[in-house]
Amino acid sequence: MPKTLLLRHADRLVTMDGARREIPDGGLYAEGNRIVAVGPTADLPATADEVIEARGQIVIPGLVNTHHHMYQSLTRVVPAAQDGELFTWLTSLYPLWARLTPAMIGVSTKVAMAELLLSGCTTTSDHLYIYPNGCRLDHSIEAAGEIGMRFHACRGAMSVGASKGGLPPDSVVEAEGAILADARRLIETYHDPEPLAMQRVAVAPCSPFTVSRDLMREAAALARAYGVSLHTHLAENASDIAYSREKFGMTPAEYVEDLGWTGRDVWHAHCVQLDEAGIDLFARTGTGVAHCPCSNMRLGSGIAPVRRMRDRGVPVALGVDGSASNDGGHMLGEVRQALLLARVGFGPAAMTARDALEIATIGGARVLNRDDIGSLEAGKAADFAAFSLSGVGFAGALHDPVAALVFCAPASAALTVVDGRVVVRDGQLATIDLPVTIERHNRLAAQLAAG
Ligand SMILES: [Zn+2]
């Protein structure tokens, strides 16, 4: 018999189900990694192998982060990259990233995932696109297994170096044949297509300005042969658009359409500068967007037209983006920034608190092409987070705890459960020794910065 878990007496349980039920004195009952019942505490079984009392807390579906570069937590606030826009920011950081090692990938992945888990996030993708010194995506996947996070590992890649008109230095690009062979190996080794999978792999050339047209096409063919998703960066800022027009004679949307990079199995990060025709294309094809508000503000890239995208039917999710352009990985904080940035761009009606939470939960599930996460319903993964409502940050806001969670200062999770397993308990990470991991991370970060 699988282990049973009962969470009960939550002040409010946000389901994100079809009716968007928000249940007072709510709870849920899970068997193993699957939810079997959600509702008022009085309607749930009276006991279980593990019983969690959630009085004074709000419970939400685990947040879904759809864009990240976890290795970048080693290079936060690097002085030379603090104040540049996308291309200058990248070119300042490439030489540091060229010195990454496998140990750095492992430890930075754990630090980034710890930050996400402690902010209520249970599923994340990571886009690793630089593989110097024997680094492999396997190192990220191992770290995810150790910490216990649901993981979509994206096999990124760069193949067009500066000598061929690309942005990165030649020293950090790979041969296209080797990229595709490694992506195939990773899919065959790690990708789990089954419902409630903890481990999926996506094929994810870094961006149009770092790989060739051929690689984009072949990556799509490979992904589709295996039924895995495709991911890249797109239409991030004005220079990105200028590069696309100059090199390909097309807008980013025309370029991805030409390459077959549209559909429910594709999601693009940013899309800040996606034009009207692009929004229509994405809506028509179900192509997803990972909206990254902090990164877009940090690099001054602009304001993604999220409301317009959603009104037209584009699947929109949320991403914290890499730790060098955020420079945080607080997922609930990102939800708040999405709300605020939408309002800066398009007025206070552009996004409600519940819209923002929807983007970060079922929006994320849809963009990752999953129907087994993102809401608390029978049959779905037992992935959820609880936040205490008794702290000073929520004082005076308890007439609407759901909105409080988004509008008020970003809180840390008291409890995070992934796949039926408690990963954060009493606000502390329960699966790894975090202080030791942070110390090791900081030693390696200093080593990287020292050159
Ligand atoms: Zn990114």
From TrEMBL:
InterPro entries listed in its UniProt record: Amidohydro-rel (IPR006680), Metal-dep_hydrolase_composite (IPR011059), Metal_Hydrolase (IPR032466), MTA/SAH_deaminase (IPR050287)
Molecular function terms from GO: deaminase activity; hydrolase activity, acting on carbon-nitrogen (but not peptide) bonds, in cyclic amidines; metal ion binding
CDD domains: ATZ_TRZ_like
Record-linked Pfam families: Amidohydro_1
Keywords noted in UniProt: Hydrolase, Metal-binding, Zinc
Source organism superkingdom: Bacteria
Keyword Disulfide bond: no
Amidohydrolase-related domain sequence ranges: 58-423
Keyword Secreted appears in the UniProt entry: no
Organism the protein comes from: Zavarzinia compransoris
Sequence similarity: Belongs to the metallo-dependent hydrolases superfamily. ATZ/TRZ family.
Name of the molecule in the record: 8-oxoguanine deaminase
Lineage, broadest ranks: Bacteria, Pseudomonadati, Pseudomonadota, Alphaproteobacteria, Rhodospirillales
